[in-house]
From TrEMBL, chain A:
GO molecular function: ATP binding; ATP hydrolysis activity
UniProt keyword annotation of ATP-binding present: yes
Pfam families per UniProt: ABC_tran, BCA_ABC_TP_C
SMART domains in UniProt: AAA
InterPro entries associated with the record: AAA+_ATPase, ABC_AA/LPS_Transport, ABC_transporter-like_ATP-bd, BCA_ABC_TP_C, P-loop_NTPase
Organism: Desulfatitalea alkaliphila
PANTHER family, per the entry: ABC TRANSPORTER ATP-BINDING PROTEIN, CONSERVED COMPONENT OF ABC TRANSPORTER FOR NATURAL AMINO ACIDS-RELATED
Transmembrane segments: none
Name the record gives this protein: ABC transporter ATP-binding protein
TrEMBL record, chain B:
Gene Ontology terms: cellular component: plasma membrane
Pfam families in UniProt: BPD_transp_2 (PF02653)
Main location: membrane
Transmembrane segments: 27-46, 52-71, 78-99, 111-132, 139-157, 187-205, 239-259, 274-301, 322-341
Protein name: Branched-chain amino acid ABC transporter permease
GO MF, one example: branched-chain amino acid transmembrane transporter activity
Compartment list: Cell membrane
Organism whose genome encodes this protein: Desulfatitalea alkaliphila
Protein's UniProt keywords contain Transmembrane helix: yes
Alphabetic keyword roster: Cell membrane, Membrane, Transmembrane, Transmembrane helix
Topology of this chain in the membrane: Multi-pass membrane protein
Signal peptide coordinates: none
Length: 253, 364
């Protein structure tokens, strides 16, 4: 396991600087949160890591692999998975099929073996199914296994989104506001899942979240963005004392 | 699984292997095997006139082609307006060899199964090539690329002396274990050959769809951003979809060449591409058996229209050839009706009928 390192990343849209000179480090096996007001550039940063955007300047490294110019599918294959803020599920498919799809690059059989099916492909697919069922158990999605995703409640869809990323057995998991729009109970569940993922699956978690209570509770480290700039980082206690952060959140007196 | 495998009701799977089955109940399997036996056995008991045998064979070949179109347009959601050209690539692979080697060269008359597979390979090659713009383009732009291929294909065949400027290139009679396949058994022979191709590729595609090579097609159709994040290359997946479609089209093309014992451009025009699309839509896009219903329905319609116009011509003798007018009309009407009232095609009727049987003896 390696640290994920972002060095001096700048991203612009036309004249707008979504990110400027952002530098962060994510240690293996920890939960690191990124917070900041709306439009601060949190999602843009995750997009840069996961290959949907490419920074204009700066670099992103995972171990000795360079992510800066990698495409999303290449980043995914390096063991970095992502749950989207605005659900990007396969809405017409069942929960099960959504998760099966996430294992695409883990399945080792070739086209010919797939066409014949009997033998290797059948064996790998049965194994695959077992892994997916483990995740379904873990994320407590059993009742919805065969439901079409589009028909499920928002809270459950969010959970499927996280489950799908988890199915990829990632070393690094990017979660973009996994608790947004949830009721208290669902939020509690999600907090528990995130903590369990870190402990039991030993993944590095990068969490974007607006709920400061949750963030302060579960993060090992916190990075704060405002208008695309880093205005603070450190342990939850340090960040809570940082005058710049307080100013950004509460405003100037 | 519970003891009674005849009914779906009350059956629960106890292993993931069981869920992989193609046929969940004995009834499903029984119906399928019965249909298959019937398809193989009827020519032994019943002799169809050459005219109708040709229609049947033609339909089977269309099934092969539409299974391919269904992969790219149904599963992967990419409209292809040049499918007939890919069928043409298959047919002209055989024709091209017939021109170079002579139309009764052993390779063509004896190694015909090899020729069919080779034509499939050529179709796949051209499919992948035409699909290359998918690396950059989306939706309608991609459809235009396939249309361009259709145009270029027709133009090239018309232009090149090697392809006899689109005039018929003859293909020799093939040999089988019993010697040369003569005039009297020609249609029955190619009926069986086409049927075997349909069954093998049908199972192949059915298998493919329960593996990662099938799921990725549907993934890029439904959400190619998410597919990308799941580790699939959206562009290459689409190229691969075109290659698969091209492969099936190539097989169909070779079968067509052998069935008609000749290849001419008039069988691979834009009109045929639209017909394949209509078959795929009427049958039901994105379902395997839709590829069987569609060609059957459209061919059936065609025969009815022919009857109708023959009958009408007796009553209004002055009207000239009504069939030429009625054909496109009825054809267009059926497509519009299906798009309006049953966009999921005939396959959906089948699905409804099945879900009724599945719940038996309970009614909802
Ligand atoms: N594709 C894009 N094109 C143009 N501008 C963009 C694009 N993506 C993001 N932006 C802009 O970049 C800025 C940062 O957006 P981003 O989505 O990263 O914010 P965020 O911190 O995730 O906000 P929120 O908390 O609301 O999710 C915003 O001003 C946004 O309008
Ligand atoms: Mg955001």
């Amino acid at each position: 396991m390696h640290p994920l390192i972002i060095s001096d990343v700048t991203l612009t849209f036309g004249g707008l600087k979504a990110l400027s000179g952002v530098a962060m480090r994510f240690e293996p096996g920890t939960i690191t949160s990124i917070i900041g007001p709306n439009g601060a550039g949190k999602t843009s940063l995750l997009n840069c890591i996961s290959g949907f955007y490419h920074p204009d300047q700066g670099d992103i490294h995972y171990g000795d692999q360079r992510l800066t110019d990698a495409a999303p599918h290449q980043v995914a294959k390096m063991g970095i998975a992502r749950a989207f803020q605005n659900l990007e599920l396969f809405r017409g498919m069942t929960v099960l099929d959504n998760l099966l799809l996430a294992r695409h690059s883990k399945l080792k059989y070739n086209l010919l073996q797939a066409v014949v099916f009997i033998g290797k492909a059948a064996r790998v697919e049965a194994e695959n199914r077992r892994t997916v069922e483990e995740v379904i158990d873990f994320m407590e999605l059993e009742p919805y296994r065969k439901n079409t995703v589009g028909t499920l409640s928002y809270g459950i869809q969010k959970r499927v989104e996280v489950a799908r990323a988890l199915t990829m057995e990632p070393q690094v998991l990017l979660l973009d506001e996994p608790m947004a729009g949830m009721n208290i109970e669902e939020k509690e569940d999600m907090v528990r899942f995130v903590m369990d993922i870190q402990k039991e699956r030993n993944a590095t978690i990068i969490l974007v979240e607006h709920d400061l209570g949750v963030v302060m509770d579960i993060s090992d480290r916190i990075h704060v963005l405002d208008f695309g700039e880093m205005i603070g980082s450190g342990t939850p206690a340090e960040v809570a004392r940082n005058p710049k952060v307080i100013e950004a959140y509460i405003g100037k007196e | 699984m519970s003891a009674n495998r005849w009914l779906a009701t009350g059956n629960f799977f106890t292993s993931y292997r069981e869920e992989q089955r193609i046929f969940f109940t004995h009834l499903d399997r029984l119906v399928f095997v019965a249909v298959l036996v019937l398809l193989f056995a009827w020519p032994l008991f019943f002799e169809l006139s050459n005219k109708y045998m040709l229609v049947v064979n033609h339909t089977l070949i269309a099934v092969v082609a539409v299974m391919g179109l269904n992969i790219v347009t149904g599963y992967a959601g990419l409209i292809s307006i040049g499918h007939a050209a890919f069928v043409g690539v298959g047919a002209y692979t055989v024709a091209g060899l017939a021109t170079t080697l002579g139309d009764s060269h052993k390779l063509i008359t004896h190694a015909w199964p090899l020729m069919i597979v080779l034509s499939g390979g050529m179709g796949a090659l051209f499919g992948a090539f035409v699909g290359l713009p998918a690396l950059r383009l989306k939706h309608l732009y991609l459809a235009i690329a396939t249309l361009s291929f259709q145009m270029i294909f027709e133009w090239v065949i018309h232009f090149m002396g090697f392809f006899n400027q689109g005039q018929t290139i003859y293909i020799g009679r093939v040999h089988w274990l019993t010697g040369e396949v003569g005039r009297s058994s020609h249609y029955v022979f190619w009926y069986y050959a086409s049927l075997v191709v349909v069954v093998i590729t049908g199972f192949g595609i059915r298998n493919l769809m329960r593996t990662r090579f099938g799921r990725c097609l549907i993934a890029v159709r439904d959400n190619d951003r998410a597919a990308d994040a799941m580790g699939m290359h959206p562009g290459l997946t689409k190229v691969y979809a075109f290659a698969l479609a091209g492969f099936m089209a190539g097989l169909a093309g070779a079968l067509h060449a052998y069935l008609y014992r000749g290849v001419g451009i008039e069988s691979f025009t834009l009109h045929h591409s639209i017909t394949y699309l209509a078959m795929a839509i009427v049958g039901g896009l994105g379902t395997l058996h839709g590829a069987f219903w569609g060609p059957a329905a459209i061919e059936f319609l065609d025969i009815q229209v022919e009857h109708l116009s023959a009958w009408a011509a007796q009553i209004f003798p002055a009207q000239g050839n009504l069939a030429t007018a009625l054909r496109p009309f009825s054809f267009g009407l059926v497509i519009v009706l299906f798009l309006m009232f049953e966009p999921r095609g005939i396959a959906n009727w089948w699905r409804i009928a099945r879900s009724y049987v599945k719940l038996w003896p309970f009614r909802y």
